[in-house]
Amino acid sequence: MSRIRQHNQHLILEAASAEFAAKGFDATQTRDIAARAGVPKANLYYYFQSKENLYAKVLLGFVEPLLAASAVLRESDDPIVGLQAYIAARIRIAREHPHIAKVFSSELLLGARQLPAECRDLLYAEAQRNVECLRSWIDRGLLAPVDPQHLMLFIWSATRTYTNLGWQMAHITGQKKPRDADYRNAAATITRLVLGGVVPEVAQAKQPLMFAT
To answer: Which is nearest to 120 in space by CA: 102, 132, 130, 108?
Structure first.
């Protein structure tokens, strides 16, 4: 891929993410995406063929960091280390990819009707691996006997709040958008709530909690 092609595709994807995040798929116009990207409208169709294909590429661009975050969960055999790293990684995604995160969350809230089958398959397989990892820790007595599926759902919902509830977050913090400190505090708070509910006190005493994003 030539540098010019790669650069133009990046500009279009960034612009599309911002437009889809602000207006949703149906209300977004390709001419507005092209204008925001600073490229001719014809370039958008040359690189992506349709608005639907462009939307799918935006969604796929968020799936990749989600898969990387999930891999972090299973890198350590210690649930304290794994869960801390996983929560921090998911919060980091929300901080580094705010537009795509909002587009992805909105798509899920609408029933994932336009989520490409490729994305569905990847996310489903990764979710199953994560649940099995939690179940293994539970079976070995490293975590409290909770339902691993609902534990995973709780982590997902808690970390996704920072993309879904922008207005509410601004109202609570008094800031137009979350600051780096807000993301750090979010990771620390969610981690403390999760580990406080599922990790035995003895294990917590042996492995002090360290919060970072």
So the answer is: 108
